[in-house]
Fold this protein.
Amino acid sequence: MDLTPLRCLNNSISRFIHLVTCRISTAMPAEKDYINLVSLLKLVKPVLDDIANHKAPLDEALSKQCDELDTAVNEARELLEKWSPKTSKILCVLQSKPLVLKIQNSSVKLCGQCESSPNAQICIRESRNLKLGQLSEHIEEILRSQDGEKNPSADHLTEIIESFSLRSSQELLNERIALEKEKQKAESSNIKTELDRISQILELISHIREFVGKKKSVDNVQIPSYFRCPLSLELMWDPVIVASGQTYERAHIQKWLDQGLVRCPKTNYELAHKNLIPNYTVKALIVNWCNENKVELSNNSDKVEDVFEVRKVPEEEGSVQSSPEHSYVHSRSESASSAVSSIDYASAAPEIGVSRMSVSYPFTPPNGASPSPSGKFYNSSKAISRMLSFPSDSLHNELTSTPHVEKLVNGLRSLSTEVQTASAGELRFLAKYNIENRVIIGQCGAITPLISLLHSDNELIQEHSVTALLNLSIDENIKSRIAEEGALEPLIHVLKTGNTGAKENAAAALFSISLLDDYRVKIGRSGAVNGLVDLLKTGTVRGKKDAATALFNLSIFHENKARIVQAGAVKYLVGLMEPCSEMVDKAVALLANLSTIVEGCSAIAREGGIPLLVEIVDMGSQRGKENAASILLQMCINNSKYCRSVLQEGAVPPLVALSQSGTPRAKEKAQQLLSHFRNQRESAVARGRS
């Protein structure tokens, strides 16, 4: 009798039991199944001893059964050896199920062929009482319901969250990353069944994240979805933009990229590069939201679970401390030519160096917080623009009533031009200052008739209507409704045909809507870019600022960069870099985005931008120097002929000075550019010698 299969099985069982005893932890979701398997296999071992002691015959069928169980035990052991906390918990459970059931069935079959063994019946009885793979069956049931286009119930999602300890944002992120890495492996191996299963689990994770996200609040203040990082679902502290144009919390997207993942988590598009651009627009929006809701946002780097800490602050409205990364704000509602101010620096606020910046931009959103001379943010919904020069203007800060607004909305539909003008004008000013008024106006159905009046032949009606929509867009919910009700084409019509004030406010409204990720793409594809570039060319200083603001935000989405370049924006931006211009920093910031594509570099060189950029590196503001250095670096890497042009303009001395005294990011760019010059020179010398 050959006892080799018996010895092999005994050894495999001993190794498996030892591994489970040493390695199993509560972090492993299949823990209970493996512990139950150990109990079962401990009962199998006496049966094997009986066979070895000739208390049960080892025939060919029994030998085959030993081989089958040996294979199953070794497969389970290999899966257990591969397990780590970075492995997907849900996938681990699904992969474990067929293995644990195979071990259970093989054990029963083996013991069933050893009727003469006194231990066999005990093993069979205990084996049949084991409930293995139940968690896996539950998951499979939920995945099947997804296939039927039925979303998992709240109870099911809660059960999965508890079963897999997916309570924290960090755990959800870890699970997502683990699944994405497994998906990459399946794609490279072209294993369709595995790929389909992983895609199903990712869809389930998406439902869990959505379910968890709805509960995110601070002292019953719901955190808006667009302020939460799509990866962590937490309020963003340091929002950055990736190559796809999406915004994430820096720490979490960096973790994603560090794991070798090359696709955008939200769009699933492959990222053209791994650069992270600070999103100061969203940061200012978040600061403003925290200020209005009395929520304190503070960095908490010692905390493992979250990058930040959010808590309600009881003190009176006043300030949220400015981040070191913010030396500017941008508060925008109606245009200057409409008798209201918009985008300006706080002249008394000191400039602060900005670190970790690829492109820094001196614009913040239309409802952004505004800095006081002390450097603290104050509530911009109350100070969003200067007072209108109308005697009755202060009255529009009072809370209106629903019946009154309903009358005004009916007036928008009147056949009388005078009634339409008066109604649109009053709605414009009611929406200007008061948060509650905006909500009432939105609820009374004003959005649709205001949009229809954007096509009015009466310039004043058109201006009142576009400005009312701009003021209403300060409310994030109303902003989404304005976009959804088809405002893009009418706004572009105003941008092309309106009077000076209407054009400026149409540009500002397009910027406001472009803060919605999906609409950044739609606006770029809608033909708005040409209108904004025309405003950049022919507008007042305020109009040019509004156009540049909107174009910058559109340029965050990679596809829009080529459109902006093709529309001729670079020529006017280069002109705005002249020292006498009021828009040097704004122009350089937008060009920094456009320089990341070949067409942008070519256009900057063609329009004579290199001498002006070198001058800004030498004499510009800290922000301007940083962006100018970034552009020159992009151009020199793109084409060696630009290196010669930059060197001929005497760029080395100001770059050396910047590498020693600029912002951290400016120093980095200057050092990279100087290093590039050295490498080019050494390569030329080497070629000359050869």
